[in-house]
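The protein record filed below.
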Amino acid sequence: MLDHTSGIPAADLPGRNLDEWYAHRFDVHTPRSMVASATAKEREFAPGVSQHYLNINYTVLGLLIERVTGQAYARAVADRILRPLGLRSTYFPGADPGSAARTTGATRYSRRRTGVTSCGMSRCGGRPTGGRPGHHLDHRRSGALHHRPVRRAGVRGPLLEEMFTLPGASVRTYGSGKPAQFSAGLSVLTLGGRQVWGKTGGRWGYNTAVAATRDLSRTLVYSVGATDAKGKDMNATAMGIVVAAFGPPPAA
């Protein structure tokens, strides 16, 4: 699930285009209903054969955590991750869009720009959100890339190494055939001739990222207001920041 090689397809959610997705941004979805929708369909591929980044994997993991720990997912993560790392302003908004604090932004649809200050997060499944982007994303970067805080959260040794281990070379990206780039919780890019590990994210109106080289000689944390945050390609401003920090990607 963490490296997105499960083959489970995305849940069916309302909307066929940007206009309709935006109109349904406050809809409430339960994890069980999303998993039921996804697993009612045929797998995209056999487990471990390909890689396809989809949020449904996090949703399944959230339900598994609840089964194993006997706690609500939000409580389990707060006890085991957020409190040990001192992330006092990171939280789970649940079904209440008004509680999801984030950078105010705008999105473009139907050739218009529309302000976005809040949206429902229930479709995100097992993903925490909220808080002050720069401050807490930096903590997350520190945790993901073997600083002391992550050891307090119990990620060390083989568990930590999994975060820097890609699937086997035979595993390719579903649909494109490109090499897999997601490990257990991180992704990797080659920029300026070096490997850069991190995680990006986006909702209506903004893009964020945390990234660093394995030795932490270069690190980057950004949050960008973006009208194309749900677009297919990377936001041009964000790409400019990434290239300035790490260097350009390899020539095609």
User: Anything to note?
Assistant: Residues 50 and 171 are 5 Å apart (CA to CA).
